[in-house]
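Many introductory courses stop at the sequence. We go one step further.
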Amino acid sequence: MSQPLQSRTALIFGAGAAESGPGNGAAIAIRMASHGAMVFAADRDLEAARRTQRLAREQGGLCEVVEADVCSEAAIRAAVSRAQEVNGSIDILVNNVGVVIHGGPEELSVEDWDRSFALNARSAFLALKHVLPIMSRAGRGAIVQVSSIASTRAGVSGACAYHASKAALNALGMTVAMHYAARGIRCNNILLGLMDTALVREQLAEAHAQGLDHLLKTRHATCPPGAMGSPWDAAEAAAFLASDAARYINGTDIFVDGGLHNQITAPVFKSGA
C-alpha cells in the first residue's frame, strides 16, 4: 500500500471521534495515519481523541492523543511541543475545529459571536502562531484548514457568526499561503458542503421537530449528486493536500461539496455544513 505521508508528523486539532462514529477531523487523522504519518490527534475531549487513536491503530496507523482546548494558547503550545518531540518538526498541521451558532445580528449575543470567532478563527491563528516557526526552520510544511461553503454563500440559516468566522479562516489561510510560500510552506482551505457525520445527525435530531429522517432526505436531495458527502471525502482531500502530490497547490480554496456551491438557489447550511 502506498504511504504518501511516510515519516511525516501531523498535528490535527479537533480530531476526536464521537461514540457513534468519526467526524471530519477523526477521519482526517485516521486517513493520514493510514498513509504513513505519525498523527497527533488533539481534542479537548481526551476520550474522543482516544476513539480516533483506536480506529487509526486498527488500520495499522501510528496515532497519539493530545488533550487540547483550542481556546487556550497554553494548551495549543503544549500540544505543539509534544508533537514536535517526535522528530524535531511538525510537517502537517490541520485546523479542523468549528462551531455553528444560529442567529442573525439582532438575535445573536455578543458572547456567542465572540465564541464563534474564538473557535472558528482564533484557534487556527494560535495553532499557526506556534507551528509556523517550526515549519520555517525545517523549510517545509503543509497546512490544511477545514472551512465551509458557508464562508462564501449566505445560506438560509441566519448563522451570521459562522459565515463570518469561516470567511475569516479562509482569509487567514490565504495570507499564510502567500507569506510563507518561499519558505517551502503551503496552506490550503477545504470548503465542505453538506456532510453526513455523526455530529450532524445528533444536531439535527435534537434541534428540529420534523424528524431526523425527513431532514436527512432534504439534505441529501439538496446536494447535486443526490447525497451528502462523508467524513472520508474530507479526509481524502486533506491527505492529498498534505502530500507531495499537491506540492504546487497553495493558497487555494478546495470545494468538497459535490458541486453544491454552484447552485443558484441557496443551499441549506443548517447544523453542520
